[in-house]
Specification:
By secondary structure, the protein is mainly alpha-helical. The chain has helices at 3-43, 50-57, 59-92, 95-107, 113-124, 129-136, 150-174, 180-186, 191-219, 223-229, 236-245, 250-271, 277-282. It is 78% helix and 0% strand.
């Protein structure tokens, strides 16, 4: 074997070894625990599908799942509405303003979810800043219940999810040809018609992709609902934690975790229809 061929063979072998190492680690530390959870959902407390029958027979489980889906959907819609406005503003503002706004959006990733949740508790509680301002302005006579309920959970979750909506939307909007809207205006369309008929349809794939991302994060969110919900608004992640640490119903918890994982995988598969992940990473 010639020297160049031997060198090429050694390089290829090294390449496969470098690929194999992370795959083995992924199998040991991710796939094995996930498979263990799947097995627990069918074997604890006894073999069978009794845990999955709770989806139909257990009213508490149904309420938790419905609460999770409802809050996740509301959070997604609000995050997309606000995120679209911010992304649209980023697209049409000057370079200096865009840099500042993007810096603010990116900096929000560095703030812990725990800190954000407690900050909202301080703002929304009965003697917090919001109620104090409303009472001092004469808008209300007594404090509003803004926290430890579904409203507080939605506010906190929308605040946390906004960057996950803004950045994909901005990337999608930036990829739209900026000559199309002026062309529509030149053909007689009003600004609102050009937006509805040209710009908005072209931005729909990014809008759907950002919505799926926000929904995926919302379904499994734990810290913000636990703190701002105050035990009154329980979502599936908190319910799973209660089943594991307090009631010790591991089979039920494993079943809910499996259902949640399956839902997320289906959403990711649907997301792949609207977003080219590989192309987004190359940008």
């Amino acid at each position: 074997m010639s020297a160049p061929a031997a060198s090429s063979s050694g390089t290829e072998r090294l390449y496969w070894l470098m690929m194999l190492a992370p795959c083995v680690l992924l199998a040991l530390f991710y796939l094995a625990p996930v498979l263990n959870v799947l097995v627990l959902s069918f074997t604890v407390p006894r073999p069978g599908v009794a845990n999955y029958a709770e989806l139909v027979n257990n009213g508490a489980v149904q309420r938790v799942l419905w609460t999770t889906v409802r809050i996740g959907a509301i959070t997604t819609v609000l995050a997309l509405l606000i995120g679209y406005l911010v992304a649209y503003a980023l697209l049409h503002c000057g370079p200096r303003e865009r840099q500042v706004l993007l810096g603010i959006v990116v900096a929000s990733f560095w703030i812990s979810a725990l800190i954000r949740a407690f900050a909202w508790v301080a703002l929304l509680q009965s003697r917090g800043v919001v109620n104090s301002l409303l009472i001092s302005a004469g808008v209300i006579d007594s404090p509003l219940s803004l926290v430890r309920n579904e409203f507080g959970v939605i506010v906190g979750m929308v605040h946390y999810m906004l960057p996950y909506a803004i950045l994909p939307l901005y990337t999608s909007l930036r990829g739209i040809d900026d000559r199309l809207v002026p062309a529509a205006r030149a053909l007689g369309a009003t600004p609102s018609q050009a937006f509805r008929w040209v710009f908005l349809p072209l931005s729909l794939p990014g809008l759907i992709g950002a919505g799926v991302i926000v929904m995926i994060f919302s379904l499994g969110f734990y810290i913000t609902p636990a703190i701002l919900g105050g035990g009154r608004t329980i979502m599936v992640a908190e319910f799973i934690s209660v089943q594991i640490s307090e009631t010790l119903r591991w089979g039920l918890a494993a079943m809910l975790a499996t259902v949640l994982l399956g839902t997320v995988l289906l959403l990711v598969m649907w997301l792949s229809r609207f977003m080219d992940v590989e192309q987004a990473l190359r940008k």
